[in-house]
Amino acid sequence: MDDVVKEFLVESQESLDQLDLDFLALEQDPSNAETLASVFRSIHTIKGTCGFLGFSKLERVTHVGETLLGKLRDGDLAVNADITSALLALGDCVREILNCIETAGDEGGKEYAELVETLTALQTPGAVAAIPALAVEPEAETTVDAVEAPSAADEPDAEAPVAKAKPRAGSESGEQGNESGGSIADTTVRIDVCLLNSLMNQVGELVLARNQILQFSTTQEDSGFLTTAQRLNLITTELQEGVMKTRMQAIGTVWNKFPRVVRDLSRMCGKKVRVDMDGQETELDRTIIEAIKDPLTHVVRNAVDHGIETPEDRRAAGKREEGTVWLRAYHEGGQVNIEIVDDGKGIDVERVKQKAIANNVISAARAESMGDREALNLIFSPGLSTAKEVTNISGRGVGMDVVKTNIERIGGTVDIQSEPGRGSTLRVKIPLTLAIIPAVVVSCSGDSFAIPQVSLLELVRLDGEQAQNAIEMIHDVPVYRLRGNLLPMVWLDEQLGLHTGAPRCASDLETLNIAVLQADERQFGLVVDEVNDNQEIVVKPLGKLLQGLTCFAGATIMGDGKVALILDALGLGERSGVVARSADIVDTSLDQQSDTNAHGDSETMLLFSIDDGRRMAVPLSKVARLEEFEQGKIERTGRHEVVQYRGEILPLVHLSRILGTSAASAESGSLPVIVYTEGDKSVGIVVDDILDIVDQRLAIESQIASPGVRGSAVIQGRVAEILDIEQVVEMAGIHLPRPEFAGS
Amino acid sequence: MTDICKFCTFLLDDFFFGVEVDRVQEVLRHQEMTRVPLADDFIRGLINLRGQIVTAIDPRVLLGLPARQSEELPMNVVIRTEDGAVSLLVDDIDEVVEVDDTTFEPPPENLDGRTRALIRGVHKFPDRLMLVLDVDSVLNSQTGAGRKSA
């Protein structure tokens, strides 16, 4: 393509972005002469250049627009919503033609007669109301002719004010470095992104070479060399930061599109919504900006579509008619926080739950016991649209699950909070850059692996006896108690198939190095041979051949020149089964603040033991009474042991015999019995010892169920299995609800 | 195939192979490799090629040839692909030869199907045969085989 055309395209695209903002600003403040002048100038420049380059269609459209703008500027017309809509449509049209020129080299086949007609009609004061938006279907030929005459007449006086407006521009309206800009334009250079990327790569290489030299320098004693190595180190760090900065873009480049999105959308839904922004200048790496563009757009659309109420509803709720979507971005601890806040009706937690149950995301019982915060996060599960009805706006194929996935793909996190009637806040945290990240290097079976700091929560090292006793088993799943929470353990060498030889046994462990990783709201402990050191690593993608390996996020080159694989916490979690791929695992957040509850029936648990200290618990709500029976009182009917109890015959179930390994415990004296009642029938569950009644939130439960056991939880700092009392009764061959039982 | 073509040749087991010179980025002596757990067995590891990470694959495995003796260190024929470089681990590097169409013949019909897909044909030299390795099928056969590791 011609260089002149290329330049024209780049310049025009830039002024178009500015145009959209200006149009909206005009709607807010129609009298702002400066904005008007800026808009006029942008359109005029495009028109002038495309006339020169021979793009007649574009020229025709911009020409009408310019005429309209001229009248606005001269005060012959006042800006109103219809005019703004038409002007925005003009911007879209210009963009469309420009894209066409860029891809196909010509202006494309569309005529845009409709738009031209609207723009023309709007030039007549008072005629505004008669124009039903842009839905008119005019005849192309006649319209164009009609336009030509008056606009040509406007031309001469349109030129003059432009020149006058020039010196003032760029002061208040926030435009940066466009053609009128003074100092900014003089100090900026336009650079091809490819060049920046290749610079970035080379700096990556330099960082690696620096790491190698630093490693080498530890074996050297030559002070001259050491000083030089230090200098090299410093310069490289600074250079790295500098080059990283060149790839930084303000988040405003993404946000700038939102006022337009929100305006169109709110008009479509009949709502009034204002967009406020804070921290537009917050900078992020280009690649990240690209990656968050779509998710953020979706969230903003959601906020307008589902969050903000109609003006009537808002009035009824005692709010201002105009809703606000507030975008906020700021740096915090090496990460960027982005908040999208709306002051709408908030998220209806109950409806989220119902929807989740209807879509089989969670069970009804699970929903019952779920805390609000946890339930809110259900909106991130696949297949869950919280919109009461699917509108064309929300049905864009991008659900919140995709938003979450996209954000997590770049190492970010998403969290949502909502207050009914007050609005919702979606908080996104993302790293500044993806190219060079801090990581911890660990070794396993003789190989080095890097764990990105973002997924690493903490490192735990256990020695000697501690190591041998640290791991408890729930069936065949090893767990470790980290400050009272059960942490599923995963051995890296086993997951990667590097572990050879006999299955390990806890007693021969000398030290245990655990990297506590966070993956998809879950935590798990990754056991590695050794934890080496922290390093800034340069992430290199794996080739196509290795793309299927989800356990690795890429590779990097270590200080000694060797290649090391970067572990992917999510992939490892999925591989080991700690993080389920399916959606029904939204429930086990390790977050203690969330109201995680064992099984929803009650938070009060009866704690007892069987089998010499095997701790079990049952919700107290299932327990009718606790009794003690003398051994001698036990009688037999058929295969069941029974006692006479309150004028009835109470069958007894020895829990140790049903669940345990010990055939029969040699009880002496009295038997502690848990009486369980269903309808008007009861069963006595014989246990070894009643330990306690605890009223506490169960911090974690594991899904490992077995016959008679629903799972396990940490109670009073120790693991206890949760008894499934109904199932146990069933297993004992007693059918409670059946009437035949009364006769036995 | 064009009239005159240059081939970079190498040895695998007792066979003499060639790949088009313009597909070859460079030829290297043995490089240290980092194994990739869970990957297919023909993927031997990752090589640091001046800061670029290159996947090393063993054509012996793909061609069904016996495994290399552990004391024999393989050489690298680095192939340029759209998706970065890939290295073929070979026993020894031979010279660059120039051939034309006249010596070419398609692979014999009774060649084992798996191998046949990877060999485009044979160039007849007076003293030996040069098997033309189809680099693209070598690279593609891998993506297919990558399933089990996913």
Molecular structure report:
The complex is a heterodimer of chains A (744) and B (150). Chain A contains 22 helices and 30 strands. With 744 residues, chain A is α+β, with helices and mostly antiparallel strands. In chain A, strands 10-14-15-13-12-11 form a six-stranded mixed beta sheet. The termini of chain A are far apart. Chain B has 150 residues and is mainly beta. A six-stranded mixed beta sheet of chain B has the order 9-1-2-12-11-10. Chain B has a six-stranded mixed beta sheet with strand order 3-7-8-6-5-4, with no helix packed on it. In chain B, strand 4 and strand 5 form a beta hairpin. Chain B is globular. In chain B, 34% of the residues are buried. The model of chain B is unreliable at 143-150 (pLDDT under 50). Classes of the chains: A alpha+beta (744), B mainly beta (150).
Largest sheet of chain A: 6 strands, mixed
- CATH homologous superfamily placement of chain B: CheA-289, Domain 4
Structural class of chain B comes to: mainly beta
Low-pLDDT sequence parts of chain B? 143-150
Helix content of chain A: 25-40%
Give the CATH level 1 class of chain B: Mainly Beta
| Record field, number of beta strands of chain B | 12
Task: Give the total of beta strands of chain A.
Answer: 30
- Total helices of chain A: the number is 22
CATH topology of chain B: OB fold (Dihydrolipoamide Acetyltransferase, E2P)
What class, by secondary structure content of chain A? alpha+beta
- Write the H/E string of chain B, N to C: EEEEEEHEEEEHEEH
Average pLDDT score of chain A: 75
Q: Any low-confidence stretches of chain A, pLDDT <50, length ≥5?
A: 128-184, 386-397, 582-602, 738-744
Q: What is the count of helical runs of chain B?
A: 3
The mean pLDDT of chain B is 84
Read across the widest sheet of chain A, the strand sequence of neighbours is 10-14-15-13-12-11
